[in-house]
Amino acid sequence: MALLTLAVVALSYTVAKPTFDTTDASLVVSSDPPTEENSDVSTTEEPNAPIELTEMDVLSKISLRYAHTSVVTRVRNPASRAQETTFRMLLPDTAFISGFTMTVDGKSYKAFVKKKEEAKQIYSEAVSRGFGAAHIAAKARDSNHFTVSMNVEPRSTVVFNLTYEELLVRRNGVYNHAINLHPGAIVPKMQVTVHIKETRKISTIRVPEIRTGNEIDANENDPQYESVVINRTEDENEAIITFIPDDAEQIRLIKVYAEKSGSHGDENKGLLGQFVVQYDVDRSVDGEILVNDGYFVHFFAPTSLPPLPKHVVFVLDTSISMSGREIEQLRDAMRTILNTLNSGDHFSIIKFDTDVQVLDWSETGENRVWKTYDKYNRNGIVMEATPENIARAQTFISTLDACGATNIAEALYVAVNIAKGGAANNNTENSVAAEINKLEPIIFFLTDGDPTSGEIDTTVIINGVNEENFGENKASIFSIAFGSDPDRNFLRKLSLSNSGFMRHIYMAADAALQLQDFYRTVASPLLADVQFQYPKEQITEGSVTESKFRAYYAGSEAVVAGRVAAGAPALAPRVLGKCRAQGGPGRQTYEISLSTPVVPKESYFPLERIWAYVTIKQLLDQKDALIQNDENKGKVQDLEKTAMDIALQYEFVTPLTSLVVVKPDDTRAVELKPVDDNDSFDNPGRSYSTPMRFRTGFHHNYRIYPKSLRSRVHKTPPTTTVAPSTTAQSNPSSDPLEPYSLKEFPWALSLLDAASDSLVLHVNGTQVNLKLTKDINTAPAGGAACSPPGMPAGMSASCQYLPRCAVVRNISARMYETLYCVLENGYAGVCCPNRN
Fold first, then answer.
1. pLDDT tens profile 694-717
2. Fewer CB within a 10 Å sphere, N or C end of the chain?
3. Residue 677: C-alpha distances to residues 106, 109, 681, 738 (Å)
4. CA separation for the pair 443, 417 (Å, rounded)
């Protein structure tokens, strides 16, 4: 059996370099330890035949907008020695990993979902007892870029199968399903199949040209990809899209990707791009309820309603960090966005740096200027979106310049005050007239950095906004994280707690288009104060997902899911809201009622998994929207527990759960259950620790070590008994770190090569061997000055023999890669802070 260790790390959008971030987010699959039978590998050096990624098969099954995607890759090493290969993959940021299996020498082994803390404990206990183990955990829901580097055994094949699931989001009238094809090499056998099955007629289906993944969504005017085959059933409820690129087409796509992305050389090696399928279903009826096997899902996307009049408050960061290209793109985007305002809309414009100013229309002609806001004199702040006013506003937008600090707090407080006052048009005290003239309040907030002026505590800022933005006229806040350095967590929390969402706009040539595309998704509210009401006797109490929405926007879709009460013959909900009055600018009540019988089970209806997916997503959003303080501590814990319990039940990898795999020795009584075995995974048995390496950055790295490195593994005589992981083993192995005075440095185990008495690092693709000694008194003295990255001003450090630096006992192997130094004769040093 081949020795194999796989580590998968979910990472955020940062550069691929070691950092001080020690967040553990990784997965390892581990198989047999070295044995006398399989450790005999010829060490004769000879040229290697190149390693082969022989097959990549992607299958997406979409039922009722819910996509289950499986990515299977097959890697073959035809050479007589182990070799490394790299596989790249980008998952959608809305997806949950739902399974991982690996097949080694014809046997398949499955990863299991555990609580994050339990997974870490299993990993630590397994390593300390000599197991090869690890786990995969989502660091954040937008951490979705995967890179896999692996050493494959001589003349062997390894198959990896990663599955993930997502509920497709409807934007601008279509569902978008994206599959990223980044195999890292030309693949002799590649196939992508997308099988769509809906209960309604598929009214639109498009497959645009392969994209880089950094463009805005494709639309009906974009060229379609001619290399795909689309087969539809007679009833048009089902479609199969097949894409089988040969070598020539893959080479062409690689070149196109390089041209579009501006990458060169090895940067774009094997990067084909993003395969996108867009579709929609018939909307002849406003709403669709599906009931199956005790669960229901309610889809709601009306299309025939006129947009509500709205009041948009544009809040624009013009601080010094926006200078240059950023401010130019902001001007371009705003000029276009203002042109999309509808008749009857109103708008206000705020710019902020150190100071906060509003565009004041109270003066006439050229006297209109940017002024400090006066809440007691609001005349001229809210303007109707007439062609004349839009043209004049565009003129002032063209004068925006970047300077000063970033006073986010005051800008938001001013925006909320204007939005709430403008929502009722601020012109009448009559409640009936106020309702007729009511405008839907929206705050469009853009910034590229952190608060640096005024109030800078983001928790205080959010609390202040929430205290002001409440009640009937509560404004929806949509945040734009612009460029490379915004505080995404702050902006996400701000929007989630104020009925909106955050979008990251990346600095690129099309940043202005990205801004326009984002605005378009919220530019047309069709309904306000939307409520889904389900008869209590027809549903299970507490099971229904979010059923109240501040607004519904054109081109999107509202989804509510829940459990049907036992014995209920039908489900008959009502949907209520406020829509634009027919023939006038005011509002009227919107109401629609539907009824659906409870039907026998349909096998292809994934309603239960949709319910689980939506519930977890919303629970995590609710948690993230809460301010982290003592008052909310209990609420946060309750939300986390509920989300975690559901994730464990349905085997979703979320920010609260992890995948864990331990593959014990075949000679043991207990081993990891194969994929087709339904028994639980509760006893990893005994094995040996195998070297593994974790790194954060833009990619995750997997290290799979060959037999040639097995000698670093500390060997322990086999035992004849197997105990549960929580029970002490008989004949426990000694700590392999202890002879090197590294017992208090547990992270070093993953780097240890006991056979050569050294630590082995892989830094920027280069292997670094650092010597260790079993007699610490013989180690070099060290003392040369060094400066680790991120060292605070006024602190000094020197290169010391690793076991002599107590302050690095609890770092990670990944962090050591940023701190290591080389002592005399190649001994393992670390840049250790001096005592002073």
1. 222 222 222 222 323 223 333 333
2. C
3. 15, 10, 10, 39
4. 11
